[in-house]
């Protein structure tokens, strides 16, 4: 049996519990307005090449948490090593963001790495838009200069195992939407017509040098518009 003092204390405790504010609910993050963008640099480069394009996308409303740069050793094999590593990176991005699909923007040699991932590495189900800036999609004769000692250069030569298999059948398979941007003054991809692909939105950018495309404002605007298309 409670004493009068104990009863008063219990009543006070009950009153305090009833008047206490409800615990705050955990904040639910708002859905991102954009698909995450995975940027894949080219041969003998690093993620720093994407500074201008990242700035352009941020100015268009992308958050840093929606922009990802895949860094890798550009002297390794496209099909045996690099496409698989890109696939693992894309899965990390999807887990971190909760996104079903990502967009991939690649430059130069990175186009072969990302195309192999999409066509043969399971990327068809994970990539919504794929973009190639000055990619040697059908090979480049320039790569013969380093093919003797460098696997990536061998992969970029016309008729290589990688180029031949990517060209076999459908060049732009699945529900992925593809775009290429190419320059008729490209000193690295020869011939220039190696860049455009059957089934892709192929956009000439005028007379730009090979490494100028990732930093070119007009090209950046074209990439952003393609990523935003319904």
Helix tally equals 7
Gyration radius, rounded: 25 Å
Q: For the largest beta sheet, what order do the strands appear in spatially? A: 2-1-3-4-5-6
Structural class by secondary-structure content: alpha/beta
Order of helix and strand elements from N to C terminus: HEHEHEHEHHEEH
Uncertain regions spanning at least 5 consecutive residues: 6-29
How many strands in all? Answer: 6
Strand content: 5-15%
Question: Percentage of helical residues?
Answer: 25-40%
- Shape descriptor reads globular
For the residues shown, what is the average pLDDT? 90
The largest sheet, given as strand count, sense and whether it forms a barrel, is: 6 strands, parallel
Distance between the termini: 72 Å
Topology (elements, then pairings):
Layout: H1 4-19, E1 37-40, H2 51-59, E2 67-70, H3 78-97, E3 102-107, H4 110-120, E4 127-133, H5 151-156, H6 161-167, E5 177-182, E6 201-204, H7 217-228
Helix pairs in contact: 2-7, 3-4
Description:
A 6-stranded parallel β-sheet has the order 2-1-3-4-5-6, sandwiched between helices. The protein is α/β, with parallel strands linked by helices. Strand 3, helix 4 and strand 4 form a beta-alpha-beta unit. It starts with a helix and ends with a helix. It has helices at 4-19, 51-59, 78-97, 110-120, 151-156, 161-167, 217-228; strands spanning 37-40, 67-70, 102-107, 127-133, 177-182, 201-204. Helix 3 packs across helix 4 (110-120). It is globular. It is built from 7 helices and 6 strands; from the N terminus they run H-E-H-E-H-E-H-E-H-H-E-E-H.
